[in-house]
Amino acid sequence: MIYTCTMNPAIDLFCKMKRFVPEAVNRSFYEEYQPNGKGINVSIVLHRLGIQSTALGFLGGFSGGFIKEELDGMGIANDFVDIEGITRINTFIQSEDGEYKVVNGGPEVSKEKQDILIRQISMLGSDDVLFVSGSLPKGVDREILLDIASLSVEKGFKLIWDISETILSDLVAYRPYLIKPNIDEFRNIFPDADINTDADIIRYGKALVQSGVENLIISMGDEGAWFFNASGVLKSNAPEGEVVNTACSGDALLGTFYATLAQGSEPSDALAEAVAAGSSTAFTSGLTDFEDVADLKSTIKITEVEGAL
Question: Name one GO molecular function term (predicted).
Answer without folding.
Answer: ATP binding
